[in-house]
Amino acid sequence: MRLSRYFLPVLKESPRDAQIVSHRYMLQAGMIKQASAGIYSWLPLGFKVLRRIEDIVHEEQAKAGHIAIQMPTIQSADLWRESGRYDAYGDELLRITDRHDHEMLFTPTAEELVTDIFRSHVSSYKSLPLTLYQIQWKFRDERRPRFGVMRGREFYMKDGYNFDLTKEDALHAYNRHLVSYLRTYERMGLQAIPMRADSGPIGGDDTHEFLVLAETGESEVFYDSAVTDLTFGDRDIDYDNVDQCAAVMEEFTTKYARTDETHDEALFNEVPEERRKVARGIEVGQIFYFGTKYSEAMGATVQGPDGKPVPVHMGSHGIGVSRLLGAIIEASHDDNGIIWPEGVTPYHAGIVNLKQGDAEADAACEALYAQLTNAGLEPLYDDRDERAGGKFATMDMIGLPWRITVGPRGLKNGVVELTSRKTGESEEMAPEAAVARLVEIYKAHDIGHG
Ligand code: ATP
Ligand code: MG
User: Fold this and answer.
1) What is the homologous superfamily of the domain 347-444 according to CATH?
2) Do 21-338 and 347-444 share a fold?
3) What pLDDT is attached to residue 450?
4) Which of 38, 48, 96, 132: disulfide with 346, CB 3.0–4.6 Å?
């Protein structure tokens, strides 16, 4: 993409009404625009990161054997009466009446609808296990929408639902989701710690929330600092292997890590004092096992091996896709702007032309642009007729992990400058070497193929 042809409305002034850094930078970098309280338009740069995150979620769900569907945002109230949640959900549920006076609602989550799909089409245990998921807009009429995309009223969420014959099978599905979520967050450059949590209005027995530690987080968390040493890394996992998934589950959830809702002071005190941490976190996902709560209420049964009908065991599993943009920025930024992890960056490298209109500099930038593109990477070329300082400030604000700076002086010696956004370190090298370096870096993230 060439900046001269892009739509990147970067703000000169830092927006004053935004209280936390991610909200401020998302507005300032021209990623989002508020439409009304807690409701945002996604401008090109923000939309691009949103899609990168969405792609990672889809890829990791596919690896776990989960199947993507898409359900409507507007649903009939009747289904929600069957489960009892139409009245129970409270004021966060946006209720809508259509022209025929039918009561409808904007979906805050989709247990009812997916259970209805299941009961209409699945009748035998032989069709199990089954996990269906979607990535879809949700609406919750939050009392205090705030912090930009962190607590919106409209927000983008991955919601998945497992259907299993037995509790044991459903607990495997729970563990499988935990593993797939660990991988998903790590690919985004995030450490999200599973913590024992409270089930809230969805209801259930077993539940963990995934929290990214950040001072601006809305949840108070208590944990053994040893949990921050755990990483999933690039180990192989067979998602059908019950023992393997259970072992990961145990590894990541045995040490003390709880939100304030489930915090137990006595248990916490058993953790060695120097490892006892009280901090704040951003909830970026949650997994639930709730058994037969919805299947019994809504008649979602299958014929078991003995021919008798049994209600299926279920769980639901969510990732806050739009909230993740805020969480990633909270975890990765400096005073000059965002620092995108390579896995989610909107563009893989910025090209800054220090002397637009200089034949040699222009040609070198065009060549770099073509080489990076041919290698499967997406560069953002600042080809505007602007001062170098302004170009650097824009690149720093929008946070691309790598910048190639091209100017007549360097080109005389056959070099350009490759700069890391994170460390600020620069290295001079031939343009081809810079391309080769970037190809190598992104290969580790399975991006581009040189
Ligand atoms: P919270 O406790 O933050 O209100 P929740 O527990 O009600 O969230 P879930 O039903 O678990 O939310 O939804 C799954 C994920 O969707 C959450 O882990 C969170 O990342 C995201 N999410 C929930 N509410 C919002 C919101 N208002 N704005 C943005 N993301 C949200
Ligand atoms: Mg939750």
Assistant:
1) Anticodon-binding domain (3.40.50.800)
2) no
3) 53
4) 48
User: Phi/psi at 177 (nearest 5 deg)?
Assistant: -65, -40
C-beta of 207 in contact with ligand 1 (< 6 A):
no
Phi and psi at 391, nearest 5°, equal -65, -45
Determine the CATH number of domain 21-338.
Answer: 3.30.930.10
- Strand duo 67-68 + 130-139: pairing: parallel
Long-range contacts of 247-250 (CB under 8 A, 24+ apart): 248/175, 248/178, 248/179, 248/182, 249/174, 249/175, 249/178, 249/179
Domain ranges of the chain: 21-338, 347-444
pLDDT at 205: 64
Dihedral angle computed from the Cα positions of residues 74, 76, 82 and 84, in that order, rounded to the nearest 10 degrees: 60
pLDDT of the residue at 204: 53
**For position 82, what pLDDT does the model report?**
93
pTM (2 d.p.): 0.96
* pLDDT, position 16: 87
Q: In which residue ranges of the chain is pLDDT below 50?
A: none
Which of the listed residues 42, 142, 286 should we mutate to test ligand 1's pocket, taking the one with most ligand atoms within 8 A of CB? 286
Q: Which residues pair with 391 in a beta bridge?
A: none
Report the pLDDT value the prediction gives residue 448, as an integer from 0 to 100: 85
Q: What is the pLDDT of residue 49?
A: 98
Ligand 1 centroid to residue 444 C-alpha, Å: 31
